[in-house]
């Protein structure tokens, strides 16, 4: 009897211990954040604008103390409003030189790009595989161009169809591309030299890093490819979000504000996309965004709205401006943006400097538009340019109220209090200046569009995180 009771006692302890272990395992499985130092909620929030329509995410854990090997990949699925892990974390490897800072990935640097990128196509050696995603079989003459000088840079082409001198074979002699997923990095608006052929593929081994891709075991990638679904709009998040605390996306604060982020595209005085602008977004300090919200509120009562051209500007973008200004022979945008200015005098005249208040996060370039905003003229690279100081009907047809010149016009008519602009244009500038001053902004007298928050939180800090 005593032996039986003792046996039963230990049996009950064993059952309780087993249940405890099971509960811990389930908790770890369901909440991957507790399994590491990587704050998944913070990461997902940082990339909210890029994943808001997605229900499947691959998350590559980024801990700066970790080497290129020994990484973890989490497969997350959205159920209702919650993100849940659907598999145990996968072992993974990344580029041999770790993650590139957002916006700083370059061809041949051995780094994996940071950011959130779509997953839209799979590929492999077999005729067909178990996946719901679009699939392409890699044949012996299929290559991916990594030659920054080639017109078909970062594209999958046939070897007979290109003049590129450097490329990646899609049908390799090993199993690295036996199964793969294209990571849509630098594929929408391709920038030569910013990195190419970024894939999620089979690894060489658990302790062997890649040249810039993310790699897992063959068994694991087969499982992942079978799980992914096009309707889930899957995204992979890699590296760290470098946005400092205290910065916000203006469209989260003023969703009705119109954005025309000129340095994200080619319609600016450089004539090209500017370094550090990886997305058409306006990031500002929270204090600046809140003050602008008050301006927007007042404008809305008159059926008007803010239109924003530029906000926070990375230091690397300012450096890009400086390089452009020193290249005297590059004058392809002179006709529109600086028709009366000698490019050699841009520094002396104060148009270009090695530092910009925009890099402190509390300066914004903006104007006013009717609400709802009328259609704006499309800008086509290479089109005939017209001087930015001409009357509104003759210069580039922006959809704003007439401020006397176009944006970024290097001309004395852009000076806020210039007396040679028309009466209505003076009224329009005064409206903008008065509202901005009322809510704590000061104007730069040579640019009617340029305003800085008086009590900016980072008056002596020049940031250089990319806009993504």
Offer a few descriptive terms.
single chain, 468 residues, alpha+beta, Muramoyl-pentapeptide Carboxypeptidase, domain 2, 2 domains, 10-stranded mixed β-sheet, 5-stranded mixed β-sheet, 9 helices, 20 strands, 22% helix, globular
Give the overall average pLDDT: 89
- The coarse silhouette is globular
Distinct helical segment count: 9
Percent of sequence in beta strands: 15-25%
CATH topology of the largest domain: Muramoyl-pentapeptide Carboxypeptidase, domain 2
> In CATH terms, what is the architecture of the largest domain?
2-Layer Sandwich
Radius of gyration: 27 Å
Order of helices and strands: HHHEEEEEEEEEEEEHEEHEEHEHHEHEE
Q: Can you characterise this structure?
A:
- With 468 residues, this protein is an alpha+beta fold.
- It has 2 domains: 37-238, no CATH class; 247-453, Muramoyl-pentapeptide Carboxypeptidase, domain 2, CATH 3.30.1380.10.
- Helices cover 22% and strands 19% of the residues.
- The chain has helices at 2-30, 40-46, 48-51, 218-227, 250-253, 286-300, 315-326, 334-337, 423-438, and strands spanning 56-60, 71-79, 82-85, 90-92, 115-124, 135-137, 142-145, 156-158, 167-169, 179-183, 199-202, 214-216, 235-238, 247-249, 258-259, 283-285, 304-310, 363-370, 441-443, 450-453.
- The strands form 4 sheets. Strands 1, 2, 3, 4, 5, 6, 10, 11, 12 and 13 form a 10-stranded mixed sheet that branches. It has a 5-stranded mixed sheet with strand order 15-17-18-20-19, with helices on one face. Strands 8-7-9 form a 3-stranded antiparallel sheet, with no helix packed on it.
- A hairpin with a 6-residue loop joins strand 19 and strand 20 (450-453).
């Amino acid at each position: 009897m005593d032996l039986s009771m003792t046996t039963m006692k230990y049996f009950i302890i064993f059952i309780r211990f087993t249940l405890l272990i099971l509960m811990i395992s389930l908790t770890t499985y369901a909440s991957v954040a507790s399994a590491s130092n990587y704050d998944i909620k913070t990461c997902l929030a940082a990339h909210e604008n890029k994943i808001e329509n997605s229900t499947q995410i691959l998350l590559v854990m980024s801990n700066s103390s970790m080497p290129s090997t020994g990484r973890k990949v989490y497969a997350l699925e959205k159920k209702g409003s919650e993100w849940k892990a659907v598999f145990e974390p996968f072992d993974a490897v990344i580029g041999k030189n770790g993650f590139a800072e957002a916006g700083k990935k370059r061809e041949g640097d051995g780094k994996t790009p940071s950011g959130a990128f779509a997953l839209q196509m799979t590929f492999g050696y077999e005729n067909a595989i178990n996946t719901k995603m679009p699939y392409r079989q890699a044949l012996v003459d299929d290559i991916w161009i990594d030659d920054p000088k080639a017109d078909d840079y970062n594209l999958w082409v046939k070897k007979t169809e290109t003049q590129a001198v450097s490329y990646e074979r899609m049908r390799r002699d090993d199993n690295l591309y036996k199964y793969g997923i294209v990571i849509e990095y630098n594929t929408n608006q391709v920038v030569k030299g910013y990195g190419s052929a970024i894939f999620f593929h089979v690894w060489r081994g658990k302790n062997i890093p890649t040249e810039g891709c993310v790699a897992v075991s063959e068994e694991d990638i087969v499982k992942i490819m079978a799980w992914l679904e096009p309707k889930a709009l899957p995204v992979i998040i890699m590296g760290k979000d470098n946005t400092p605390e205290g910065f916000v996306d203006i469209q989260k604060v003023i969703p009705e504000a119109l954005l025309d982020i000129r340095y994200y595209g080619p319609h600016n005085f450089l004539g090209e996309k500017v370094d550090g602008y990886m997305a058409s977004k306006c990031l500002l300090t929270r204090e600046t965004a809140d003050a602008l919200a008050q301006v927007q509120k007042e404008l809305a009562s008159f059926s008007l709205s803010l239109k924003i051209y530029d906000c926070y500007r990375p230091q690397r973008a300012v450096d890009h401006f400086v390089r452009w200004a020193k290249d005297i022979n590059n004058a392809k945008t002179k006709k529109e943006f600086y028709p009366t200015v000698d490019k050699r005098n841009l520094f002396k005249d104060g148009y270009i400097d090695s530092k910009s208040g925009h890099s402190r996060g509390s300066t914004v370039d903006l104007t006013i538009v009717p609400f709802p905003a009328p259609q704006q003229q499309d800008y086509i690279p290479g089109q005939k340019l017209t001087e930015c100081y001409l009357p509104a009907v003759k210069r580039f047809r922006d959809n704003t109220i007439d401020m006397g010149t176009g944006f970024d016009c290097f001309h004395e008519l852009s000076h806020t209090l210039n007396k040679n602009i028309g009466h209505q244009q003076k009224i329009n500038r005064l409206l903008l200046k008065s509202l901005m001053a009322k809510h704590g902004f000061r104007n730069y007298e040579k640019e009617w569009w340029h305003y800085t928050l008086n009590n900016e939180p980072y008056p002596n800090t020049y940031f250089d995180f990319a806009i993504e």
